[in-house]
Amino acid sequence: MVYRVVYGGLVLALAVVVSATASTPTAGAPVVPESGAGRPPTQQQADSLPQSMFGFEVGEERRYILGPPEALLEGERYEWIIRLADISLNRGRLFAAFDLAYDARWFGSLTLSTVFGRSLRARVIVNADGFPGVVTVNEQMNDTVVTTGYTLQENETYKMTIKWPENEYTFNIPIASHRNLDLDTQRGLYLFANGSDLLGAQLSSSMDTIFANPGLLSLALPWPFPEDGWEREFLGFSPPDGMLRYPSGELLRTLQNRGVARQRHFTRLRLRLGFLEEVEIGGRTVEAFKLEVRGPFREAYVDRLGRVVLLEHDAYNRGRLRHIRILWPSEY
């Protein structure tokens, strides 16, 4: 059976250049490579590497924008980018390096004459099961570059590092438990924010909005899609807001409390792949599988190529439900 869901409006986006730098893994997690580092592969190894993972071709970029236009003030813009930058082989295991970008512009709550903006860049390295080994987020603040990084360790923790030019802070974030999590094989953990920041009138200046990128859901989906449906419950890794601000005493105490830090970084998520439907997005009608997403997101749609083309949200603004939709190349 084919259903039809219509989302009107076409939003043009400004082009964004993605520039991210991978963090250097610590000695405690040798199975996670730094993309582009170490001994170069032999010609035979390079020829044997796949040119696609998780439905992404190497170099493929997907862009998303918050909508519909009626739910935003004129001039507001929130955009996400995900790009498969590289596929590498380390100790017989495949790894994928993704570049992420988030760019936002919004108006002050007291006056529309004040415009705020924020740009974040990230490099994420995951294994063939989508398990994140290295996550690095950079933000340019005036003349200062602030970096927040997470590197998987062998003792079931992530080493978190906050780097300012004058100071560096390091914490160990214990990984939460889950029945479908296997730390020995590194399966069952995926990078994705639950979208709580999208509930407000503005997205605010929270770091985890970069991880609300719908393209990250593709890393948790089976590929190719099974014909008889699919459902999975897993652990979501969603670094919380405020990590790029200069660490306050309260934040430092939170990160030093291992129980609270674990609770702030991980959440339980469930995905269920449904039937094929027809969805109109950005003036195009596409066939896509309905994907139920537990949490603030109501549901998503994934096309036959594995692209998440629409992510619906429970947040109302200006009387309209919000969604994040894919931008077609003609809209760049």
Q: Can you lay out the helices and strands and say which pair or pack?
A:
Elements: E1 4-6, H1 43-48, E2 52-53, E3 56-57, E4 61-67, E5 77-90, E6 93-107, E7 115-127, E8 132-141, E9 144-152, E10 157-163, E11 168-174, E12 189-191, E13 230-237, H2 249-256, H3 258-265, E14 266-281, E15 284-293, E16 297-303, E17 308-317, E18 320-327
Parallel strand pairs: 1-14, 12-13
Antiparallel strand pairs: 2-3, 4-5, 4-18, 5-6, 6-7, 7-8, 8-9, 9-10, 10-11, 13-14, 14-15, 15-16, 16-17, 17-18
Q: Could you characterize what this model shows?
A:
This protein has 332 residues and is mainly beta. It has one domain (4-331). It contains three helices and 18 strands. The chain has a 16-stranded mixed β-sheet that branches. Strands 2-3 form a two-stranded antiparallel ribbon. The radius of gyration is 19 Å and the shape is globular. The two termini are 33 Å apart. Mean pLDDT is 79; it is low at 1-30 and 204-208.
